[in-house]
């Protein structure tokens, strides 16, 4: 017991910091996530180029055009992408466009859209079947996307609710990707598939709402013009809420994003300082031992 | 008999689908387009069967675990029971619109997935404290880049110093884009080679 206490006392500050229980770190993180939600700080949220590009793309879609809304919002990235999905969806419904909602990747997307996303969007009296259609989840991934591009009606015969699509005025206009004017996507991971099966072959502008950790992977496509804008996770959702002037959940979470990012940076810096201090202390102890011997 | 057991028939089917879709991508011939559409519809039907196989693949080890009463076997019972409940409610009425199914999804599955993702965030946070060390030049460069990207991504970063978003954008646009481009092209060449090997039925040595 005495040896252990002596050993603890012999530890340098750096070693003590490095040996810190990680639950202390988790507690700090928890506090910085909860505190701004209870006491909003209203920290500034500058709007980035990627969000502006997304907004401009949707604003510039010609009126009465058909837009493919590939809203593949799944449970695994629901929390991060949902506010951006609502903001994007609201912007699309604000404009005089015809919208076709479909999912190819996340089989739980239709449920999320119907129960959690669409109720938060003002449809401005748009008529189902004429102004927008909900096709639900279509199995087949990239193959299904290729099939949609060439002939929609060979891939799908009914909408999500089981009604035949051939009777719907919007679907009578939408036969293949040639009839589309843009693609708006929510998802993570299948952006390259959309690019190679729909966006590039049919020369369609393409905007994506995705997780923040997917954005670096998509930068080559932005630089080459194959992606026209990215809504960058929760922060991008907050920016988009500002752009459409409809503050929501994302904006309320930006304080927490700012503070936790600062905490992570602080913790990394402190960890490195502690590491170098402990290394220096070990080196000094080693020299002292050698001098004694 | 050897023809059924061998690779010739599957290779021929794959080759047919590949050639038809490849020609259809570049040349507009109605007959080829019809065949390509047919092959894609076949693929979609096969995908549906794959979902069923996935369920069997998930059930099989868990059923064995229950039979043999291996460690944590009650969790396997729990998992199978929940799966059956969700499938049953999902199939009642118009598929996926049953109120009980929606309630279970919104109030049970979604919060559980959110909680699991939050745990991941906690572990990444403590891993950043322990693993991000400037042990050598490469690690130091990565550390500095990570700090600038984090501060550039944080909404408050631009308020602290307007250089953070500029540096972050430079990191995204130049070194990151260059590296990702190399990975994407490399992966694409790999897929091309695999496609050619599959088309010609070439076996790996």
Could you explain how this protein is built, in words?
Chain A is built from 13 helices and 6 strands. In chain A, helix 5 links the parallel strand 1 and strand 2. Chain A starts with a helix and ends with a helix. The model of chain A has no long low-confidence stretch (mean pLDDT 91). Chain B is mostly helical. Helix content of chain B is 84%, strand content 0%. The interface between A and B is large, with 64 and 56 residues.
Strand and helix map with partners:
The complex is a heterodimer of chains A (293) and B (205).
Chain A (H helix, E strand, L loop, with lengths): L1 H9 L2 H6 L3 H17 L10 H11 L6 E6 L6 H17 L3 E6 L5 H9 L14 E6 L3 H10 L1 H4 L13 H5 L6 E7 L4 H9 L6 E5 L4 H9 L5 E4 H11 L5 H44 L1
Parallel strand pairs in A: 1-2, 1-4, 2-3, 4-5, 5-6
Chain B lengths: L1 H4 L2 H19 L3 H39 L4 H19 L7 H33 L5 H17 L3 H4 L2 H37 L6
Which features does this protein show?
heterodimer, A: 293 residues, alpha/beta, 6-stranded parallel sheet, 13 helices, elongated, B: 205 residues, mainly alpha, 0% strand, extended
